[in-house]
């Protein structure tokens, strides 16, 4: 029996576009034997979130070692080349269509993190220096405090068996940078509920998590400031932020307006999508 995990033609940041994909992934992750086909044949475009999601779901099914896993490459040569350039094919071992984990990492564009890696954040800082008009001091604040704390929180508290995948891409024509952090962990509600037992829903938990000083861990250096600093920075410079965690979908638009909503399905972990608008940054 073969199970198919099919990705949409446009792998954008819209979480609703992946409902069918995530349903198919759940069936594949619970399968005992047979073959699982990750099918990207019809994909015409990837944002970093789509690529991070593809990679972490594929890695998770492979690591379970219950099924033979295969992969259909995009028929669009430009999209296939994008996967090559972003290091997707370096992350796995391919034998024809059959794919296995390779345990390799590929720098800023696509990397699996299971522990703090200072050199990785240094690479991100250098990347931002090249691709944005941010001052070096601002880059250090955004990267070494905010992004590092967000990723560390994922590593320390998500209980994600595969860590998290981080992907980043700059689109010159749009003058926008996209970051995506994806894990397959317990979700923000479960992370915060022990310390904040009154929380009832994922949208409520995400809305609380972005406030200053809120953390599921004991207050210490930088605890509870990562998401807050990130939201403040993006609000100041017209960026955007989306956080999806289990049944919650929280967004902050380019004008700083925040909306929290229930998802009509369950995301198997947490994803954080960040858009930095280079046009609105100080020159």
How would you summarize what this structure contains?
The protein has 283 residues and is α+β, with helices and mostly antiparallel strands.
Report the uncertain regions.
Answer: 103-107
DSSP helical segment count = 8
- Spatial ordering of strands, largest sheet: 8-9-10-14-11-12-13
Structural category is: alpha+beta
Q: What is the percent of helical residues?
A: 25-40%
Main beta-sheet annotation: 7 strands, antiparallel
Radius of gyration: 18 Å
Give the overall average pLDDT: 86
What is the string of SSEs from the N terminus onward? EEHEEHEHEEEHHEEHHHEEEE
Shape: globular
Number of strands: 14
Q: Estimate the strand proportion.
A: 25-35%
Oligomeric form of this entry? single chain
Cα(first) to Cα(last) distance is 57 Å
Characteristic terms for this protein:
35% helix; 283 residues; alpha+beta
Q: Your description of this structure?
A:
- It is a single chain.
- By secondary structure, the chain is an alpha+beta fold.
- Helix content is 35%, strand content 25%.
- It contains eight helices and 14 strands.
- The protein has helices at residues 19-29, 48-64, 77-85, 118-131, 136-157, 188-193, 202-209, 226-236, and strands at 2-6, 10-11, 35-39, 45-46, 68-72, 92-95, 98-101, 110-113, 164-171, 176-183, 240-245, 248-252, 258-262, 270-277.
- The strands form four sheets. The chain has a seven-stranded antiparallel beta sheet, with helices on both faces. The protein has a three-stranded parallel beta sheet with strand order 1-3-5.
- A hairpin with a 2-residue loop joins strand 6 and strand 7 (98-101).
- It is globular.
- The N and C termini lie far apart (57 Å).
- The model is unreliable at 103-107 (pLDDT under 50).
